[in-house]
Request: fold
Amino acid sequence: MRKINHKNVIKLFEVYETTNSIYLVIELIKGGELMKKIKEKSQYSFLDIQKFMRNFLDALYHIHSKKIMHRDLKPENLLLRTGDNISDVLLVDFGLSSFTTLNPAEIIFKRCGTPGFVAPEILAYKDNQEGIYDEKCDVFSAGVIFYLL
Reply:
C-alpha cells in the first residue's frame, strides 16, 4: 500500500507497530461497500456504470503498473467515498495481494480469492507447478463485477 498513490485506491497514511499489533492509519471512508449499494438500488444507469468502471479500471491499471495483483476483487472490497455516487469508488483490502515479480515459492497463498469472483487460473493452480498466474486474474474479477452491475 505504501507504493500506491491513486485517487481510487485507499490511502495509507501511517503504520504503527507494537509488540502484539500493527495499526494502519487510512483515510476515512463514509460511503460504505459497493455491494450494499447494489442491493439497495436494483438498477444503475449506463452512464453511472460507465463512470464507475472507468475509475475502477483506472485504479486497477495503476496497481498493475506497480507490479501488484490484488487477487480478491469483489464488491465488498470496493468502497464508496460518499454514499450517493458509485463512480467515486475506492479499491481496498490488499490482504491477499502480491507482487507479480515474486517467485511462486515466495507467495504465501497461491490459491485465494472469493468464490464467484476468483479467476479460473487461480483455481487451476497446482502446487509445484512451474510459474504462476499474473495480474490478469484481476481483470477476470473486474468483469464479474461489471456483469453484476
